[in-house]
Amino acid sequence: MLFVFRCAFDNQAKTPLRMSPPNLKKPYVYIRFKPFIDLFHLMKRTIVIGAMASLVTWCACQKANDQTPATPGKPSTPSTPVTPPSGVKHKRIYLKQGGDKGFYSNGKDFSYEAGDTLVLKENDWSYCSFENFYGTKSDPLVIVNEAAQIRLSAGFAFSSCKYIKLTGSGTSDKYGFLISDAVKGGVGVDIHGHSSNIEVERIDITRKTYGYWVKQEGSCVDSLQYPNFTISDIHIHDGRIHNVTQEGMYLGSTDPNGTRAVNCSGSVIYPRPLRLGNITVNNMIIDSTNRSGIQLSGADQGTNEIYSNTVSNSGFEYNTAQGNGISLGGYTHANVHDNSINHSFALGILVLGAGKIDIENNTVDNSGNLNGKVTPGMASIMVDTRRTDPVVKSTLIIKNNKLGSNTDKNVRFYETFATYNTDNQICNSGTLVIPGDIKYTTCN
């Protein structure tokens, strides 16, 4: 009896999916009463054919193709990360472009394990989009360039991904990924949905609408509404953003109280967007943005830190409400320190947050002065309060900042809502304008 087996490969898994006989009407059984010699020759032919079929099957099953992207499909529920057994060597998986020079895959349809490395090698891409890809805390999933700096026109997107490291460290280039669009559209790196624990480094972004989005706006989906999830543990560092037509970094929704209408199958609701926590931005170079350089809003969880960044030439939209160097929006508590901010159409640093906010050791110059246009009333640091529900009081620590030229005062406080604590500390920050009922101490 001779069965000819067929080996079919899943283009992601590199492992046989099935082994099945062909559609034969009946098993191949050839027995006839003939002289012994005829039967002998028949047996020889059968053995040879069987051996050849086995060899072909073995070769086919050993074939190892590069990984290819899964076909885009309807978003699904997050997959469970697969942790490799102890001692198993992590794989390098080369991503393949589709016909549009892009890559999309849902982690449920892609064969990988936590700790694997996904590699981009072709020089030019349109987009690279990941949904439901998970690493683990000890074995993050790494995405890296190889052989040269990789160029993308649309950029990277991560939807409901966790424990990911996107790094341009695959070559000696300072920035291993360059994201640039001829029509200046879209977002360079977009992190949204149920995403957390993502690190991004050594990415150069230019000629986009936004450099980074890390946010989830109001949604019809309950699990994407506050307080049902927090986008947390996002670390962006050692990159560059220049010549973008809106914010350099748009981190968190600027409508944390949910005042914007969302139409859900004919019903209008006002969902509160997801909040942020444990957001870190450091060693970034941000130059020539039409709106603010770095904007962090709704970051009311964990420890948020913005430090050692260089932000210059913010506000080419020439809008006094949008051209700040660094902005902290509603509910945000953060430590903003050791940054250099120069030439902003509006304020050097704007603080509208809540909770404990530290503004220390920053160098701020030429606030209200951009490209020869001077805007009156722009302080180096301006602080105000916004409505929080429930009420969260603010404590401001502003000290040891080097504050240069501005078109107002070095530090100005407003009090839209009387929600300041009494333990504020303001020192070594030059000229101040602070309402009399706001309590604070100096460093002396």
From TrEMBL:
Region ranges (Disordered): 67-88
Pfam families reported for this sequence: Beta_helix (PF13229)
Name by which UniProt lists this protein: Right-handed parallel beta-helix repeat-containing protein
Compositional bias per record (Low complexity), positions renumbered to this chain: 68-80
Domain of life: Bacteria
InterPro entries: Beta_helix, PbH1, Pectin_lyas_fold, Pectin_lyase_fold/virulence
Domain Right handed beta helix: 278-411
